[in-house]
Amino acid sequence: MRQITYAAALREALREEMKRDETVFIMGEDVELGYAFTVTQGLIDDFPGRVFDTPIAETGFTGAGVGAAMTGSRPVVEIQFADFLTVAMDPLVNQAAKMRYMTGGQARVPLTVRTPMGCSGGLAGQHSQTLYSWLAHVPGLLIVTPSTPYDAKGLLKTAIRDDNPVVFFEHKKLYSLKGEVPEEEYLIPFGKADVKRKGSDVTIVAIGAMVHVALKAAETLAAEGIECSVIDPRTVRPLDIETILADVRKTSRLVIVDEANKTGGFAGEIAAQVAEEALDSLDAPIRRVAPNDAIVPYSPPLEQTIIPGEADVIRAVRGLFGQDR
Amino acid sequence: MSSVSRELLLHMYRRMILIRRFEERMYELYTQGKIVGTIHPYIGQEASAVGVAEALRKDDYVTSTHRGHGHTLAKGLSPDRMMAELLGRATGYCGGKGGSMHVADVAAGILGANGIVGAGLPIAVGAGMSSKLRKQDRVSVAFFGDGGANAGAAHEAMNLAAIWKLPVVFVCENNLYSLSASFSKVSSVEDLSIRAAGYGMPGVSVDGMDVVAVHEAASTAVARARSGAGPSFIVNRTYRFMGHSRGDPNHGVYRTKEEWESWKKRDPLILAAQRLGLSEDEQKALLDEGRNEINKAAEFALNSPWPDASTAYTDIYV
Fold this sequence. Notes:
The complex is a heterodimer of chains A (325) and B (318). Chain A is α/β, with parallel strands linked by helices and 325 residues long. In chain A, 37% of the residues lie in helices and 18% in strands. A 7-stranded mixed β-sheet of chain A has the order 3-2-4-5-7-6-12, sandwiched between helices. In chain B, the strands form 2 sheets. In chain B, strands 1-2-3-7-6 form a 5-stranded parallel β-sheet, sandwiched between helices. In chain B, helix 9 (211-226) links the parallel strand 6 (203-207) and strand 7. Chain B has 318 residues and is of the alpha/beta class. The longest helix of chain B is centred in the N-terminal third of the chain and has 26 residues, at 6-31. Chain B contains 12 helices and 7 strands. At the A-B interface, helix 3 and helix 4 of A face helix 5 and helix 7 of B.
């Protein structure tokens, strides 16, 4: 099968959906040129009048996205760095998420907000955060965190067609990652985890770029005789807890790898749900591998210190066996 | 010579009466504990909502504010289902899930009252984008107050509408107080409409107690928007006759009795009745007609069922 990058896969999804439905349009900062991560590059040539550069005004243009979505359009709003979601919190949390409920089911808000998250080297505290846990706390929003080119394309197409507001968290480190993406059209449903690897000893749940860290760790651990499952939820809201629970019931051990800060982070939510539903299946405490409430530092060695790496995952997994191994 | 016919003025007078009576009855129901939470009466500002709404087509869009009952009634929502919403009943426009600050009828172009000051402006801009992109000629009106005018979202929304020449009319109801803060405390300019120049759009300030003046300004701005020429900014200078919300007195704390009385003399209902040359008996008949209609609406609402508990968790997602 052909291999394309995560960024190219996203671009294909946008192109296909814009071709399919003329109510889809794109707005955001630098989207006409496709800065900062090339995703929207060239789309303005194919769809003139449907790709708009905006002023640097996330409150205004995200709010406009809500209004456009309520009136028959399917806007795809780009927030150039996920950190800038803070500037668009009112339109997302108070408007997009609640509009359908507060109107008693009248409104539909088919808005997709795409945004790059995570550490990618030297972008420091205001351009590197992983903030999906905040938005996952808000009923009314759907939260997507693709880890591969295949998932990025299939999930973005689903997001654009969905009648609910979707916040689509792309990981900056993954844009250049290549992977298999079929030529023919496909969609990936929300709320369906992908079991990347099956193992009998430990369940590792990993989100976004952490999926690749977990897979590498699982390979090393397999050489030591510890077989890990690696599960990518792909969407954290809705969360496919059933797939996670089924695997934990077999392995009896759970490690969650997340780039979001530990306190109040989504890893804690997964841990809580597993503890509520499957505590008696567990042979060891649930472990979270996540930044220990860090502010992302600028200097490369400092940044490396806070991002969960393969060694951190391996240490956490080995720790689950205590005296056993 | 006014562009407003006697027939239209009489119609607008009746619409203003309907809003006045609705708000009076709402206040009673609130003090009786039948309406919960909080309320923001629109009494005194009726000319603004009616003068603008009568310049609109049925399919035009409106975003409103926490003080929104006037806007939604003026745009044509029925007082019975509105009152039911305020009473939290199943028959309300939003099934009791929104209440006073979130009345909406999306099919009627009413994209919602809004509890966040300034949040409606970007939403109106988005509706304007839909209209323009789909080559419709629907106009979008954002109502907001002097408080909302100072929110960052207002600046961003006006700039967006201006650069994209969207069919949006920004209607600021300057009632001189943002919550308890007087206008002079929170604005360094006396006439907010001069801000329009900063976006390259026309701006005008009118007597917001005079429904004819409001209607004329709104008609000009709506025609401009519909023609594709872009947005406008209107400031209706007005006054709320009641406090900001529940429990806030009409005067005596941050507004003087003298100021309040001087504005009461310019009650939009009185001004309209004078223009129409209505006798006291004629006015009374119309005021009674409004009361009767609102009493029926309240009756409907009070006799409506509560929403079923099972609906607390519905309508979160499509």
